[in-house]
Design goal:
4 copies of one chain form a homotetramer. Helix content of chain A is about 70%, strand content about 0%. The first copy, chain A, is mainly alpha-helical. The first copy, chain A, has 2 domains: about 45 residues, Arc Repressor Mutant, subunit A (Orthogonal Bundle); about 120 residues, Tetracycline Repressor, domain 2, CATH 1.10.357.10. The longest helix of chain A is centred in the middle third of the chain and has 24 residues. The first copy, chain A, is elongated, with a radius of gyration of 18 Å. Chain B binds a DNA duplex through helix 1 and helix 3. Chains A, B, C, D: Keywords: DNA-binding, Transcription, Transcription regulation. Chains A, B, C, D: It comes from Paractinoplanes bogorensis.
Chain lengths: ~180, ~180, ~180, ~180
Amino acid sequence: MTARAPRADALRNRSRVLAAAEQVFVARGTSVSTEEVARAAGVGIGTVFRHFPTKATLIEAVFRERLRRFAEEADRLVESDDPGSAIWTFLSRVAEVAAGKQAWADAFTAADLHEALTPAREQLPRALGSLLVRAQAAGAIRLDVTVAELVALMLAVARVPDDLRPRLLAIVFDGLRPQP
Amino acid sequence: MTARAPRADALRNRSRVLAAAEQVFVARGTSVSTEEVARAAGVGIGTVFRHFPTKATLIEAVFRERLRRFAEEADRLVESDDPGSAIWTFLSRVAEVAAGKQAWADAFTAADLHEALTPAREQLPRALGSLLVRAQAAGAIRLDVTVAELVALMLAVARVPDDLRPRLLAIVFDGLRPQP
Amino acid sequence: MTARAPRADALRNRSRVLAAAEQVFVARGTSVSTEEVARAAGVGIGTVFRHFPTKATLIEAVFRERLRRFAEEADRLVESDDPGSAIWTFLSRVAEVAAGKQAWADAFTAADLHEALTPAREQLPRALGSLLVRAQAAGAIRLDVTVAELVALMLAVARVPDDLRPRLLAIVFDGLRPQP
Amino acid sequence: MTARAPRADALRNRSRVLAAAEQVFVARGTSVSTEEVARAAGVGIGTVFRHFPTKATLIEAVFRERLRRFAEEADRLVESDDPGSAIWTFLSRVAEVAAGKQAWADAFTAADLHEALTPAREQLPRALGSLLVRAQAAGAIRLDVTVAELVALMLAVARVPDDLRPRLLAIVFDGLRPQP
DNA sequence: GATGAATGAGAATTCATTCAT
DNA sequence: TATGAATGAATTCTCATTCAT
């Protein structure tokens, strides 16, 4: 009478769809048809819709998965000896990855950012929070900045043309340092 | 034998379509159908397509018009006695207006930003350039920043959730000040 | 109380439209828009519709005009000393001209062939009839063939690919000669 | 691991669409909307486009199918004891069928005739070729005529008004016989 | 009479979603 | 479960025709 455990092949398909969708969305935007995602995943379109009942669901899942991996990176960086540079490393990473041919940012916008960031529900804010307090303790970053603000800033910078991003990131980082 | 002037009614309709499109795009994104734009303008859909032969043309026209008005504002601010605060005023204004329910930024992205900013063709870079050099002369803004970077930064900040924008703008402005 | 005579400029415009339409239709088929015909004629689209109240009317007028000129050629050939070759000359001419990049035949088909050929109303059948009886009297062409059949045959051959036409015309001419 | 066979229902629908399209095109020309074809086939318009991704594809498919059936008829006639009359039978049949209210010829013209007749790709030229050489051997048809010319002639005659066709066909056939 | 702007009914095509196999 | 065929609403764009200027 327990809930039946998902079959192994079903789980495998879910992952394949998710991975294919990420690739395709990054390369060509979230406006590619679901059919193309299915093709890239090597499954039928019915399978995509079985796992993700609407296209929005799929986009959001891709987004959450991306955030989850960011969180993992943050978790790893928390161990770092140099909390000051750890946070800059992480923020740069978010801005760069999220840029992905302009298309990631679309996904991030399409999905509901605030919901995805609800602290109680996601591990990213927690992990990034640790990075942040350590960096603040080390005097590397201003005290009046929050996790949500950091994420929003990085996503914003992600939308910028590739050639300008490094410069703009440097400017934003200057703004994030403790001010005189 | 002079080139025939456009008819008055045609000009009026062109303006109405442009205004309606701006409103609708800002309110609901550039993905609204051309039919809806026509309805909002109170003209037939054929009229929209007569003036703007593709949807992309229409989006771009709305975008250029918006830039033109920004340029006018910049021109006015150039006269200001306080060049230091003039540029912050202008940049805030761009970020706020461009925000417009997330939808402006879409338009800005859809159209080709770089092309639209080609100095020879647009007055915005020129006007903003004047604001910039004055502010730099007044020591209000760092010397190593360019017009293109400023515009890109403001459009980036425009994509941010409304409630976070003032804070993020402050941070970015701090980063734009001459650094110690 | 007499019907007002058409103004000179109106007549001139009618001719210009007709000539432009013929050119454009031959070059690109009768599916080109009326707007393009107007442009080619150097008049407004309203003028086209004033002279030819529907597109079908225009196509038919172009067709009739073409037939009229064929009739003129036939009239000229009737004077010829060699009635046997005169008819072959004329028929070849019709097949070639009507071919005009495949597009004339469209026009000929679109308009109502039978109506246009109603003997009482057109001069072509009369002129071609003269050519025919002379050629028959000279023993150059079979006696059991009619004007309508000749015209239909030539229009049919007009539809054939350019490179095949001379051969097919020769075959058809053989079939038109008095049979053993 | 064999290539998956097309589903039975898909094949059935493809056939229905093709049959409906043929009927509708013959009755009312290839300019009828795809929507009407779908209605006639009793399927949704999406189904038509799934099987034939553009309208041109559909027209061409109808055309090829028709050629295929002609080829079958030719194959059957090749068995005939009387090669002389077999070819006249076949040619008459092509001219009559292709006539179909003027509309077949449109289809034949719209699709690319030459390409469709490329010997290596179609069975019609081969089958008709057999008929031809046999008829030539029997002295029923002139030696200097080719398959391509025969096909072109029949399609040309197909465009002719129904009531004139038998007579014109007779004339053309006379031209095709060995000449004195 | 001439002009060309406005109109709106289609037309082809796409795509998220459903459902029979 | 997986598949992919079927669906049809929605979208962009065209063009014959009308009518105000």
